[in-house]
Amino acid sequence: MTRRSQFQTRTEVLNIHTDTEGTFIERPNRFLAIVEIDNNGTKTQEKVHVHDPGRLLDILYPGNRVLLRKASNPNRKTGWDMIAGISGDNWILINSAFHRQISEWVLENGIIEELSDNDSILPEQKYGDSRLDYLLLKDGQSTWIEVKGCTLAEGSVASFPDAPTTRGKRHLEELIKARSEGHDAAAIILVLRPEAECFTANGIIDPAFARTFEEALKAGVKVFPLQFSFEDGNIRYLSQLPLCDKVLY
């Protein structure tokens, strides 16, 4: 059972160790990047695993700075993991492997009042044709939760997705179905852009997802955009953002 806690902004959530900084060269496919690393004056180009299916075009472009961590398995084909990339003055977490730990922290600490004081928090539960991130049980009521990470921002507007996502659309459809069957449903958006002031769906990149996002809001699916920064190796919770006035089309 969780008890709701009051957290000040800039609360440390998770420490993520990095080993070196490099210069992004290219991304041959969505899981692989080539990064130049300066090792005591000797520059080498290394294969780096990208654990984020998004395009990340405003972060992963030639010449941009990135943070890497050495792979724990020395026999792996990619010797490094991509952790973050610079955007303006901010390091942006671009490794979705950490989304589970961040969202667990959110739920276990009652950061969202409407999703706090649960009797049970069950991860990775099957609903319909999907496996959703969490099922919350409280006083006999079920709440189905899906978590998405947002790494795209233009000016003060953060948006998702940054690449077409049939999977993301299907997850929203399952949340809509849950509402129609008498359950509560919510999407937690981990907004990883500290400069953003609001969040919305990106219909320019994926109009089908954006339309489903609007349908979900009408159906009573709640959306909670939570803003985080990545500073000095730490993920920090900043605040809950409002939804923007309209979806991007």
Q: What's the helix and strand layout?
A:
Elements: E1 11-15, E2 20-29, E3 32-39, E4 42-49, E5 65-70, E6 80-87, E7 90-93, H1 99-108, E8 120-127, E9 130-138, E10 141-150, E11 152-154, E12 157-160, H2 166-180, E13 184-191, E14 198-201, H3 207-218, E15 222-231, E16 234-240
Parallel strand pairs: 4-6, 10-13, 12-14, 13-15
Antiparallel strand pairs: 1-16, 2-3, 2-5, 3-4, 5-6, 6-7, 8-9, 9-10, 11-12, 15-16
Helix pairs in contact: 2-3
Quaternary structure type: single chain
- Taking all Cα atoms into account, the compactness measure Rg is 19 Å
Termini separation comes to 41 Å
CATH architecture of the largest domain: 3-Layer(aba) Sandwich
- The strand order across the widest sheet is 1-16-15-13-10-9-8
Largest sheet: 7 strands, mixed
What is the count of structural domains?
2
Q: Strand tally, please?
A: 16
* Structural class designation: mainly beta
- Percentage of β-strand residues: 35-45%
By DSSP (H or I, 4+ residues per run), the number of helices equals 3
Q: Would you tell me which CATH topology of the largest domain applies?
A: Trna Endonuclease, Chain: A, domain 1
Structural shape:
globular
In N-to-C order, the SSE pattern is EEEEEEEHEEEEEHEEHEE
Residue windows where pLDDT falls under 50 for at least 5 positions: 1-5
The averaged pLDDT comes out at: 94
Q: How much helix is in the residues?
A: 10-25%
Question: Which CATH top level class of the largest domain fits?
Answer: Alpha Beta
Organism: Methanolobus profundi
GO molecular function: DNA binding
Protein name: Sugar fermentation stimulation protein homolog
Family: Belongs to the SfsA family.
